[in-house]
Write a structure and sequence with these properties.
The chain has helices at 2-5, 9-31, 34-50, 58-85, 95-116, 120-131, 136-143, 147-175. It has 176 residues and is mostly helical.
């Protein structure tokens, strides 16, 4: 943290690479607008850089900025729509929406990190099966491996992920 506070751009780049996708996804859960979410995530990093000397917890600060900017955008968008329609109720923006989006974002980030810990071949199998939605046979053909080996990779990979992900809810309870 000391290096970041002193303006070390390499540390900033590492933080950006690690958290940027999660912050974008968090904002997207609130705004449902890809372009706006990209802007908001970028703006959060600008703000943390400008205030780096005062920020104690970079990750918490970034999430708070993204939440606030996203909620502000939704409120402004609701107001704009209401003015355009000249009537109609505004969409509710409960704080729980932001909390749920943050928890979902963090869980997905942890899941991706856990997948990255798998051996390379098992990682490819899990990604092809679950991220790309391919069948066992399609993955077997793509990787030139027998379907039996694909099923074994799937079984072992999911067992590993279940074991890792069981610990994650405990982390969230510790935060509360």
């Amino acid at each position: 943290m000391q290096g970041f506070r002193l303006g070390n751009k390499a540390i900033f780049d590492t933080i950006f690479r690690e958290l940027s996708p999660a912050l974008y996804f968090y904002s997207l859960q609130i705004t449902a607008d890809k372009a706006v979410s990209e802007e908001i995530a970028g703006e959060a990093f600008v703000r943390v850089w400008e205030r780096r000397e005062k920020v104690k917890d970079v990750k918490a600060y970034l999430y708070r900025v993204v939440r606030n900017l996203s909620l502000d955008w939704v409120k402004a968008e609701n107001k704009r729509r209401m003015i355009e329609q000249e009537a109609g109720p505004m969409m509710a923006v409960p704080e729980t929406l932001a909390w749920e989006a943050m928890v979902k974002t963090e869980l997905l980030r942890e899941l991706r990190a856990a997948i990255d810990k798998l051996p390379a071949q098992r990682q490819r199998v899990i990604k092809l099966l679950y991220q790309e939605g391919k069948s066992v046979q399609e993955v077997a053909t793509a990787l030139n491996i027998s379907p039996r080996v694909i099923r074994e990779h799937r079984k072992e990979g999911l067992a590993f992920l279940r074991k890792i992900m069981r610990l994650i809810p405990l982390l969230f309870l510790m935060i509360l």
